[in-house]
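Hello again, I could really use a second opinion on something today. I've been staring at a protein lately and its backbone has me curious. You're getting the sequence in one-letter code plus the fold written as tokens. I'd be grateful if you could look everything over and explain what you see. No rush at all, and the record is pasted right below:
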Amino acid sequence: MRTVNDYPIGIFDSGVGGLTVFQEIHKLLPQESILYFADNARLPYGNRSSTEILQFVREILNWMSYSKVKMAVMACNTSSALALEAVRKEFNFPILGVVLPGARAATKYSHRVGVISTLATAKSDSYRQAIQEINPNIKVWQVGCPELVPLIERDKIYDFHTQEILKKYINPLLEKNIDTLIYGCTHYRHLEEIIKNIIPYKIELIDPAYYVAQSVKKELEIMSLRKRSPGFNVRFVVTGSPKNFSRLSKKCLGYYPLVDFISLNRNLQELMISNTINKNN
């Protein structure tokens, strides 16, 4: 019989951006099983209202709860900024976000920080608040970049148009003489090659995904939830097109993952019924 330690770590994002978090967690904790959820039917999240984001997050976490995860990771800055604190007390497993680990990392290097993110994350002012809570002397500038996630999800990373859009977003930060640039959206590491051609080499790049993985490891150890049995299992689930997600994932993962489509509410009802039957037996 499976124990809680054998349950997977749940990771969710609106699309392929959270795969950067998936990779870092798997690299650091290769024995841990992972359930990756992409809500690609409703992306991008960055243009949604805080009410919509909170609703989406609750739906996904409910589904993960009935799917038996031992921890959930919001591999989405927008969700982390707008919904993390609201939902943490609603579920009986730890829930981690990406904003605080990224902000903590930035304070180790920086005096002048630039953040590129979705519009919703930028409007939330979450990175500025988190960084200045640690060190109020650090200057922080945030730029919302609404065009980037759709371009990445449409596989337009290397289009000339994408490079010009990136320059439009990053140049105002360079004018502030930033010494650090944070990827305030997990999708943006997919643009790293282009970003490095735009910014001076002396600017420190902060990818919160790496620091989230460190936080996951620490939390699992504190709560004695590390997996004890050998073997790694992964399941990819999407609410939109499995084919598109698998195709886009190839560039990040190096292979085409098997992807399951689910209708979120219908599948949740099925899981609830199944769990009720198992309890009665």
